[in-house]
Each structure stands twice: as structure tokens, then as C-alpha cells.
Amino acid sequence: MTSTPIPDLSREHLTDLLRAHDITPTHQRIEIAQVLFSRREHLSAEQIMALVNRRHSETSKATVYNTLRLFLKKKLIREVIVDPDKVFFDPNTTPHHHFYDTHSGELIDIPAADLSIHGLPEPPRGMLTESVDIIVRIRPGAAATA
Amino acid sequence: MTSTPIPDLSREHLTDLLRAHDITPTHQRIEIAQVLFSRREHLSAEQIMALVNRRHSETSKATVYNTLRLFLKKKLIREVIVDPDKVFFDPNTTPHHHFYDTHSGELIDIPAADLSIHGLPEPPRGMLTESVDIIVRIRPGAAATA
DNA sequence: TGTCGGGTTAGACCGTGTATATTTTTGTTA
DNA sequence: TAACAAAAATATACACGGTCTAACCCGACA
Asked: Which protein residue's Cα is closest to nucleotide C17 at C1'?
């Protein structure tokens, strides 16, 4: 279970984490991993870039994108596509879904544990299911709470 | 022309359809509606533009985008966001979900009729649910059972 | 020390979509 | 039918997220 608010974010731990996923742990990759796993939020690439560069090193746009795609491929993070204008990256790889506030752009996790879908058809012949994502779009609206 | 069974795609019918949705039926809008509702597929904006201009009139990019957003606002069509690089427009506004073939980019409808979700939490206080979308990402893979 | 190769980099580039200012069409009134 | 105002369509320039390329850096290792 990795549900503790702040797991071990030491460089050693992150290095091990990257190695465990077959990722050569370079300085920049560790920085990016630190940003992703310390704030356990849904961050866009531009936010990640800003946070990484706020620290000390200068990390280029290309490296941020390369690294994020590498992390994706190695299943260290997930991609959440809810807005055509930007992709969110999600350090939570446990099965879950999302509320998406279309007004503020905020994403909120919905754990998949207590959730079930009935009647979903099989994928067409010869196809494998990669993922099942539920996106509940919400917006501020009439409700009793002020 | 397609030989598939087509609903009434006469200009008069489309004109009525637009009027019924409070949309002033201009020439370009009718052209775009015709493209959307004759091919009952999921089309991207660029595909729609190409198909509209293949006919006879020259319709600008801006008009295509304006019209699609107008149709969206008037609930004549739906938007399907599965790929950050392009948005698909779906002339099917009945409740349904999608298979998305990440390899070919093809979308396949999943009717919502026989489908149910259990355990979905309520949206946060003060929030209204706009939509609930299920996206099943699939890809060609090891031959399946059935 | 030299070289080899993965990683990083800046900057040019691409494609989807948007803003704006102007022209055209549409509907209305007479 | 003509004139007019309002709505819509247009071309063009622009913005932005993301990608590509070609050079560079730097550690590993002989």
C-alpha cells in the first residue's frame, strides 16, 4: 500500500524506484520523479517543468517530455486525457477514475475499489483491453451548499 | 453517395433540425450537418473540413470550428476527447460510451442501455454532474476468447 | 587519454485550434 | 424590390502544447 501521504522521497529511494522500473536514474529524472511523487497531484507537463526548474537545475522542455513519456512507458505514472489542450500526468497508478471539474480544470480521484461496471461488452475480436477509464465531468452548479 | 440506409438528409429536413435547435440554418451549417449526419461516424475537425469542402462550397477553418462549437452548445452533437491531438465529434447524442483503438485511432460506440455503474460517488458539494464517460482503450493483441 | 553511446539541450518546427477585423449573407421593414 | 441592421462567414495572423533535429555533455571503460 502506498497510501501514506508522503512516502520516502529520498534520492536513494527514488533511484531504486527508477531502477526497479528499468530506468537509468539520471539527475533530471530523479528531479522529475521527486516533483511527481511529492505532490501527489495531477500535473500538466508545463506545471511539472515549472516545478522542476524552480528547484536548482535547469531542465529543458525536451527532457521533461522525454522523461514523462519514458515514465509512462515504464508504467511509473499514468496519463489522464480530459482536455484537448493539455494532458495531465498522474503519479497514482492504482486503479482509479476521475472527476473533472470543467470549470476549474481540477481533477479528483475516484478509487476503483468500490466501483463496478456491469454490462460492458467484450472488445472486438483480436483486441486487448488496455484500460477502462471513467471520467465524470462536473461543474459548479445549483446545490444547497453555499 | 453512400448506399447505406440514410435518415432524411434533405436540406429541408436539416433546416428543420437546425431550427429546432435554435440555430439559424445557413448554407455552411447545413453542409456541415449533412457531413456529420450522413456519415454517422466519429470525425475530427480536419476530416469534417475536408469532407465539407470536397462538396462544392468553400468553407473556412474558422467557420467549421465555430459551427462545431455551436452544434455542441446546442447539443446537436457530442465531443469525444480521447486523444490530445484531436477532438472527435459524434453525431450520436444518445447515451453511449466508447472503445478507442489506440493503434488505429478508431472509435466504436458502446450503447449505454445495457450498462450500469455501481458505487460511483456523488460529486463534491455544490457540483453538478455534466456527463459520465467510459473510455475503453483497446489495441490489437493476442487473439481472444469469446 | 580517447572514444563510445546514452542522455540532455536549445531552438526550430508542426498542427490544432483561436482572435480579430473585414466582408458577406440573412432577415426585416417598408 | 431596395435599404438597412444584425448575424454569420471569411482570411489572416496568432497562440500554444508538444515534437524533432542536430549538436553537445559526460560518465564508462579500455
From this structure: B65
Contact A108, A95 (CB under 8 A): no
Return the residue in B81, B83, B104 with the most chain A beta carbons within 10 A, the one to mutate for interface testing: B81
pTM: 0.86
B128–A121 C-beta distance less than 8 A: no
Angle, vertex CA B65, rays to CA B59 and CA B67, nearest 5: 80
What is each CA distance from A34 to A2, A64, A73, B52, B92, in whole angstroms? 15, 13, 18, 49, 43
Q: How many Å apart are B86 CA and C17 C1'?
A: 10
pLDDT tens by residue, B4-24:
444 567 788 899 999 999 999
- Percent of chain A exceeding pLDDT 90 equals 75
Question: For the residues B125-129, what does the mean pLDDT come to?
Answer: 93
Q: d(Cα A34, Cα A65) in Å, to the nearest integer?
A: 15
Q: Which amino acid is at A43?
A: L
Predicted confidence (pLDDT) at residue B131 exceeds the cutoff of 60:
yes
Which nucleotide across the nucleic acid strands is nearest to B70, CA versus C1'? Answer: D8
Q: Is residue A85 predicted with pLDDT exceeding 80?
A: yes
